[in-house]
## 1
Amino acid sequence: MKKDDSPVALKARLLKIMVLRVVLALTFLGATTWIQVTEYSLSRLNFYPLYTIVVIISLFTIIYARLLGRVSNFVRFIYIQVTVDIALVTAIVYVTGGIASYLQILYLLVIIGATILLSRRGGLYAAAAASIFYGVMLDLDFYGVLPRGYKVFWSFMKPQWEDVLTTLSTNILAFFTVAYLIGYLAEKKKVAEQRLEEKETDYERLTQLNRNIVENISSGIMTLDPLGRITSFNKAATDITGYALSDVYYKSIDALFPDLIDKETEFNREGVRFEKAFSVNDGTELHLGFSVSEGEAGEAARIITFQDLTQFKGMEEELRRVEKLKALGELSIGIAHEVRNPLASISGSIQVLKSELSLDETDTRLMDIVVRETDRLNTLITDFLLFARPAKEVRERLNVTELVTEKIDIFSNSTESSGIDIINRLEGRLFIEANSKQIGQVFWNLFLNAAQALNGSGSITVSSVVSTYSVDSAAAGGGAELLSRVEITVADTGPGIDPAKLPRIFDPFFSTKDFGTGLGLAIVHRIVESHGGRVEVKSVEGAGTEFKVLLPAEGVVALN
């Protein structure tokens, strides 16, 4: 069923017609009364038949209104009303002179109403009914069948049959002409409304589609009015900044991104991208990339698109580190081997001379220093080779919980852990595919780094958790595949790391301490990376540092 033909729409139009009917009846009653009161020559006429008809119209309208809520078939109900209205109009025409009456125009009003309610078909029905009722009334009046006592206006001269036929034919032609024309216009109006409704539906669909696209796009999008106030804020913008639209609506852009709008910056150059730092509510520092385009005057004078580049910055830093390590590794491996051989010769020669020569205490001490320093250099070169190119040693499925627990026990009994409380919160049996020696080296270096930061006072907490992450997989039909990984965290309560130094802690030979080679964390990063994992660090000055080692889980991870 079309919208215009629905019961609700028909009921609404029917109510309007009923109200119009009452208004016309009351107007007709008022005009009749005024004529009777003011015109002496007409005051002796019998207007009571007209009053009776007006009362009947009012009563029928009341009955229609009472039945309206109970009617199930509105079309049939409308046809009944149209028929009754035509009968009442016929009575009005008769009592106002019959063939001499000028109120045949009331038929046209009923036909127009029927056409509005029931389209062209209803109009033609009303025209046909009006023609029949009007023709029968004229015939009965012409032949004197109807009593003249009910007429308000009547003539002593009997009309000619030719006049009756002409009047009837003219009015019937007018009835059907009006029905056809109004029906045609009604059909055109309905078609136009349907097309408009379809266009509105399409527009709403496109608007909704556009809204969905904007809301689901991964980039943050916001619009500014000419005064620089925020007028829209999509979901991605909320996810990136942590602010909802209600928090920033109609606020100045400076309240969210201070100094973003600056005539001295590139903000006003359309199409140019630039970057700004942004601090989230929890204090996290983000790197955001912005681009600006001009919108239309009004609520969207400027459209600002921005993305969170923090992860890409990290990837760039990681790529820079990998490239540097690759170049450094290729160069240093050969040098390390060349240095190692002379060191071995020096150490061996000194030990032979020490055993064969008769030396005093000073010479013996000097030779011991040479041997000790050659051993230290050899250890340094070994660590450097491990960093530059981790050995391709055999990997096996191992319980990393047991391995790390063993390293905790050993480290707890070492001199480096003196005065430090080590808390073991490892849970379950967590399995990875790795080389036990290299993974053990990773956590030993992390424990040693934490102990050096604590300087004999504080605690180290080691905890574990299993998480899942998704990767694109051809085996999953091009969709995402969920994988498990083991996360082991080593957290200390030390002084933390300077934020300016934090990006460089995994660089070789970089150290935040006044001693050490600066290879400990670089080796950690290199080994974990070679096992397909990664190391994350979070540090707050004065509140400690947390290193998180993420490694792919192997097989079933038991949590009990």
## 2
Amino acid sequence: MGVVDVIGGGRGDGGQIVDEAFEDALSRRYLAYALSTITARALPDVRDGLKPVHRRILYAMREMRLDPGQGFKKSAKVVGEVMGNYHPHGDQAIYDAMARLAQDFAVRYPLVDGQGNFGNIDGDNPAAMRYTESRLTAAAALLLEGLGEEAVDFRPTYDGQSEEPTVLPAAFPNLLANGATGIAVGMATNIPPHNAAELIDAARLLIARPEAGIDDLLAIVRGPDLPTGGVIAADPAQLREIYETGKGGLRLRARWQIEEYERGQWRIIVEEIPFQVEKAKLITAIADLLEDKKVPLLGDVRDESAETIRLVLEPKSRNVAPEMLMESLFRLSPLETRLSINMTALDAKGAPRVMGLREILRAFLDHRRDVLLRRSSRRQRKIAERLEVLAGLLIAFLNLDEVIRIIREEDEPKPALIERFRITDVQAESILNTRLRSLRRLEEMEIKGEDAALRAELQQIEALLGSEVAQWQRISGELANTRKAFGPDTALGRRRTVITGPMEARALVADALVAREDVTILLSQKGWVRALKGHLDDLDGVKFKEGDALAFVARGETTTRLILAASDGRFYALAPDKLPTGRGFGEPLRLMVDMDDGAEAIGLFFHVPGRQRLVATSDGKGFIVAEDQLLSAKKAGKQVMNLSTGTRMILCREAAGDRVALIGENRKLLVFDRAELPEMERGQGVKLQTLRDGGLADALVFSSGTGLYWVDSAGRNRVVEDWRDFEGKRAGAGKPAPKGFSRNGRFDARPA
């Protein structure tokens, strides 16, 4: 059914009423809104790295002559100018955007020079716009350079009263230098700041060697260079993937040092905190951890910051390792954050795309070439116009008396001048507009000198416009001059963020924060788990809920991971120190792991690095897997064994030995060489035994030197005589089990 949609001004002023499906009207309007959000609000332009609001702020300040070195003006006046002429949005939104451009802890190269309270790293808001003043910085001037020389296109403003630039000339790659964040409809961008000198060097490398690849660029651009410094932990392969694809994430840590004082005491001083972390909230988070006793190595925290960051962390004891204390805080507090990278921007045609480092630099260089060509073409026209005027002035100088006579005697001197001296309309107009006192000072040599200089410049411009090689040489020279403002020897250009290799100390923290004790883990048949102190061999006194009994027992230490194997082929890692203790019945296992309702536990054991396990399914398939591959930090576990419909994983046994023994539900026993069994990380495995009646009952890896044993219900070892008689090839059917073999068809009749 259609809906009435009024288009135009309505019935009273000539509007047209049409019927339109509600779905069509809604989708069309939402698409228009989405495109407006993407192109006019949230995403920056790859050429100048600015969103429309930032571009309009800088342009309005330029029009107000708020250049570097000039006086400041009230921020409220700037906001009013932007809102009234260029940006039809709220004044507070404009002021927030302008204030961010002035915050040296938010942008790597501030574009607004602020005077007054523009906020701080503690998270305090800027003062009201009526109290603060602002002007452009030198970096902003570089972005605006050439704007009055027809370097870029202009478009009408929202009210059609004036014009605004569609993009700024941008003398340096601002998109990567200052970064950008934004959330549009269906897409977002998060580009961290980088070092401008490194970016310029990489751009010049692309000019010198257009075939240069990502590895060549990363030899120059070492990684993000954040306003607040810090330390980024990443290996070269990780950085390469991020800058090649335009997406990824990095670990960002605070920078710290040890400060020693009397009697062997020491404390940690945090000098730089992660980018976009508010200092006040960081201190609150650490204080909360301290109050909740989640960082037992930390004694106290206090803020001694003034103009620079200085957070003091006092250890609980001087015997604590500083590295271990910081690792615990990195793990639990915002002293370490994840720096997400998503380099989405609008290309030269206005289309949003995810771009890599090389593509962004290439787009910037193409823009600079377009700016160079437009500025050079304009200068070429201006020189041609001036040469035409100079030629007319020279004629007037050589025939000054005749020119004066014509002007005095002729009613229409302009046509007379044109006819008498065969000059153009422009030349005649320039002669008529020349003041008499100027004619008195005119000298032939001056005119000829200016003419010669302009002709030489014109020749250079024509050579530039006709040679692509010369154009790129000029751009490279311009970038080299721009780099002087961002050189590594300047306070603004010095690299602030340190790039290090991957940090592996995190795994040590868990052991340091958990007391190392012997523990016995019990899992009941109904899925209740608990931890008992010590290694308990006698479990007769352990009680369970009515109708429940012991299913699995594991003995180990609280600092060792506990691995649970489930019948659906998934494995779960548990922390023994987090399991319920005491005299109760424990807690349901399913509160700690996301195990499917149809799955059940088939094994519980402590992880031993380097050890291997045999996993097998009910239909007789299996493989060898390393225990290291079974660990997972996720509550949902890790799928290791892929199961076909109607099958389940029935066992997960230690694989120590050179022979594999299998027993089917048909009581057929098969022994084969372990070398026939593949080692895999994940999959269905291979066929272990041909089972015509029933499925697989049990499997075991044993050593041919010790022989094959099975354990009866009383816990006694029973030897399998002449086990070599049952040897065959993998996937064989096997032979009937020897007399006296376990009635339940298992090698181990005790709880596994």
## 3
Amino acid sequence: MRRDVLASFVVFLVAIPLSLGVAVASGAPIAAGLIAAIVGGVVAGALGGSPLQVSGPTAGLTVIVADLIQTYGWRATCAITLMGGLLQVVLGACRVARTALAVSPAVVHGMLAGVGVVLILAQVHIVLGGKPQHSALENLSELPSQLLHPHSHPALLGVLTIGVMLLWSRLARNTDRRGLAALGRWVPGPLPAIALATLTAWFLGWDAPRVDLPDTLLGDWHAPVLPEGPLPSVFGAAVSVGLVAAVESLLCSVTIDQRRPAGVPRADLDRDLLGQGASNMVSGLLGGLPIAGVIVRSTANLEAGARTRLSAILHGVWVLVLALSCGPIIEQVPLAALAALLVVLGVKTLDMTRIRDLRHHREAPAYFATLLGVVVLGLGEGVLLGIGVMAVLALRRLTRLSVRVEEAIPTAHSAPDLAGWHVVVVGTLTFLGVPKVTRALQQIPAGAAVDIDLDVDFMDHAAFDAIHQWRLSHERQGGRVDIDEVHESWYERAVTGDMPQPRKSSSSARWWAPWGNRRRRAETSELDAPEVSPSALLLAGVREYHGRTARLVRPIMAELAFEQKPEHLFITCVDSRVVPNIITASGPGDLFINRNVGNLVPRHGSRTHDDSVAATVEYAINVLGIRTITVCGHSNCGAMAALLAGGTEVEHLRSLSRWLKHGNHSLARFLAADPGDGQAPLTRLCQINVMQQLDNLMTYPWLRERVESGRLELVGLYLDLETAKVQVLDQSAETFTPVPAETPDDDPSDVEALT
């Protein structure tokens, strides 16, 4: 309750100036922004599926609303908002929320950036004391004359507002948590900016247009009226409001859901769409603006410490209280200050980091096409243009094909006077690529030996038929054709007619198998095959990774490239038979791994000083925020065998001998333990060593304090190499037991989500 009440007040401070500014920018009554903020907080907050998302009027819909008001009038626009909300309710009931996320982020962010540009071009005129025109191009053409002849008082108030916003954002980024820096984090920038501009205009008596509120919040309320115009246009307007608001809300919900604190339930996107639809219906009925999830308010809610939907609901209540009791104060706010606030928000939509990410994925053309389309043609036309460009880019990727022909060294199967040929086909092989492949194959002379590598993710029948007919023709003329498929066996399955089989499992090796198990059958079948050097094996493994795995993990690695968020610190042995990611079914970024001889942890204040493990533990806990440390031992550990032998076998290895002294406590514990359980001595020592290393971790006072307070968990694992089974330590009984099977209480959706 305490967290949510405080967070709701912070969001309320953000919502007031933004709601007023969006209403002014849309050309709607000022009260419409406040009504939308109240309804978005109370209705969407109570019914929505994202507990920490805050809804209200959003700058992303200003262009649509402004155009609707000019075309149909305000009361008809309210009816369109209501119909858009009804559409959202229907979509939510049909559980199609995930489908809305299929729209490319390049188009969505290009749309928001285009709205930001349109917003800036319109609001700059208000900042300079003028009036915005009906289109972005008209605003742009009129801007030079407006800059040459500004109205001094509104312009000064706008500059003051922007200056305070920029200064406040610098205070909020300051790492000092005292004084002005703390104030900058807890008080949102729009509030002091608008307050200072209002006080300045009132104290100096400046002549600047101000907010005009009705006598009551609902004013002279009238029911919405049906728009007059062609039915397809009206229906298109309702669909436009409903879908744009839905996509913006769902993207906001997903973004906030990814950052939610522990204990906060996941967002239910279908329920969220129902909540957004209900709030838009209520807002349209009461005379409010369209509502969507707002990333600025939602982020402020999250950072202020909110934990439940109570924060969003209370923020709507605070807006209602202010609107009913502080109307005269709100009417002192200069319109130029609100316009300047929207200019700053419009600039923030032009996120350069977003552009860099899109350029990395080669989707920037769709972003810029959408942006320019929204500015020049309009919102709907711009989005359609962006979707069209994205479709062209996707089609281009689907038809991208590389064909390389190389003349190789003569083979034993080819004629002495003819060289062998190597053809590599990479990409998606469809009928569109048949001319390129056919042209390349025609370069090969008759009777030559040909190796064709098909590194393709799809092959249609036209492509198969072209290659197969060429192969039959080439072999009739005395040539030899050997086709090797790197991934999917499209060609082989088409020849045999065994299409349901996904892979040629008989010849493809598992990725986790040792190098020795993955030699080519041609090499393993020859008794006199040359010996392969270890470096050649390593490079061959890298090539296999590039050919099979790199493209699959590239999206994951790109996401992790600049930040890691591992879940566990995993301390284990350097033994080559222990592969942590295999025995835990984990991937890149999951485990922060420390490997050393014997999976040892030097005790705090040990005579044989070594900080290597302690440094890893400190960094994992204090920098990465890891809350689980696992020590994993294994059977037949060479380090434990050396301890049992008294160190005589490794005494000539000085560094190793010094390191193994950290295992003396494990050896002493082994000698003091009861050997009556029938286990082999080495097995018992390997397991006791895991228990001892967990105790060694507890010798660090700062780490012990975290464990005892419940902020850190210690886990012991033991890998039996012979059975490939992992056992977990029962610390109370000091025994290793099988990992329990999945219980009926386990949530399969969690496993599915991880998969």
